[in-house]
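Per reviewer request, we include the raw input and output of the structure prediction for the construct analysed in the revised manuscript.
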Amino acid sequence: MTGFIRQRLYLPGILFVSLLLTGCANTETYRVDYAKSKQQAATGQLTAGVAQADITPPPGLPRAGYSMWSTIGEGFRNRLAARAFYLKDAEGNSLAIIQTDLLAGSRILQGKVAEVVARETDIDAGNLAITATHTHSGPGQYLGSAFYNKHASHKDGFDPVYFDFLVEQLSSAVISAYQSQKPAKIATGRTDVWGWTRNRSLQPHLNNTTTEGLTDTASDTFHAINPALYMVRIDTEHEDGSYKPAGAFASFSIHGTGIPERDTFFNADIWAYIQNDVKWNIEQAYSTQQPVVFGAFEGTHGDMAPASRLEMLGQIESRRVGQGIAAHAWDLFQSLDTDLSDTVSLRTATRELDIRNHNTYGNYSICDEAAAGNTLAAAPFEHTSPVIGYLPFFKQGSRRTFFTDNCNGERRILGFDSLQSILEPKDSFPRTVLFQAFQIGDMAIIPLPYEITSESGRRIENRIRETFEKHGQSIRHVMVSSLANGYTGYMTTPEEYAIQFYEGGHTIYGKYTQPVITGHTVELVDSLLQSSDNIRDLPSSQEYTLKTRQFMPDAVAPQKELRAVLAAPEYQHAYANEEGYWAFKWQDVGPGLISLHKPLISIETSYDGEKWMPLVVNNIPVDDNGYDIGIQMLEDEGQHAEYAAYWYNPIFEGKKRQFRFVIQARVNQPAFYSPAFR
């Protein structure tokens, strides 16, 4: 997350307003029960299932990631999805991984989804992981801590209605994947991707004692990265006995910040292009008879920025970078053709710890209470906070040089500990961490709820490999994933933390977060390798007390047919880092009934004005499941609203070929068509 509280701190009037806003919120307690799933008998064969659900919210929710500089989402440019991958080996061991186009996983969300799916499947909180792309253009207000429900976006509060929607969509995807399982073959792999990411925090990275051969030159920002793109490919059996791709999931280390703060669309950002390009390539190259599900999520991205051209953040650069990475992912997928196996074994280990009580490991201790540092308010490179990002004591590198022999080390506490404790009670910070270790054949997957820097991830990976070797076992791939199952700030190495750039200021439990969290992770892996059983070390239940506020719009049913053209389609030329597009304005149902998580807009084409057909370009339908169709709510009038539909990067084929927007039916409003254009 970039930006955080930025200019609102140390400004007494704004602080007062912040306190007033906090006092207006309702407070509710939510309970999650960690019931065990039903046991399934071993089938003697590897099976797998995949499924996808749409999680795009209606207009009105805050976009999360840019904190005070975030905006209200007015529609979407590309959809947000949740993709579920279910695996079960021949011995009956199972696991499920959900990839989401969200800012982060959520501890309460993981628990509640697990509670639902445990009733119908063999998946529960012990063998379920929820991962995220960390797009900064997705919705907020669904996290398990009051601190991040308040500061991830520019609004405060946990939205119970959107949360319930997420629970329903994610759990339905897992249940669908479970119910559709078939005999399967799996392959794991890795490729290195260079040139599409750069280190945005090079000076702290160079301070690591393990960094060699790098300098502070601009070119070395492209070398001080984690280039690893990991993948698990899943093929399933068809009726004729052949196996074809059902899907795959992958991880890569890159911030979801290709779209700037000022944008007002929900957007999967760079990840939309990675995921859709690979999906479409698989479906066309392998002639699959069913839609393929391909999801990608964060690796150790904490100091990794997209290699966008400077001062050119936006859709064009997001597409260029995303498609560049997608080309490498597609090559990796194809390379796994000959590695597929139906004898892959699975193991899972999960343990929840209250890290305020388990704050020591070996010779290292983290703080027993969380705090935000000054440099967090400055924000990172390319998103630096106006004014405050350049002030002494706040700008990148501002640190204490004395009295550093404590858990806070070189960090300056934002507002000093006494004032920060008044504005941000210690219990508002996240305090529980779900530690997990999943093994899929020759790959270990380590999901953690932190934004993990590349060097922190490398150290975790090395310790995991050492642990396997200690037990006389080898592991080919170690996929460390950031922001899984929750959000607990950043994880920097002690050396990176000492420099106190943005990432160090956002390492909320202090200087030794990385060695302590690494130690607990290694301990879990060690326990798993010593045991003949999977490990499930969880409480029977957990409660969350959160300040609530509904941003989801109410559903106001129209009393009559109200769809109407407000403005015929009009073309806007491309200019200065902006795409060209057709725009069509119309009146429709209000935001509470527009249901943006369902197909809404497509383009049809005709040569005679009478026979209309869906437009397909390069074998891909031009509709709102792709890259180039967007929707924006312009005005909410209660029982109805005004909208604009956009077709970006359109085609032109002479005056004979016509096009029109198609708006799918909603409530009692029939399908609707724009005037033709060409």
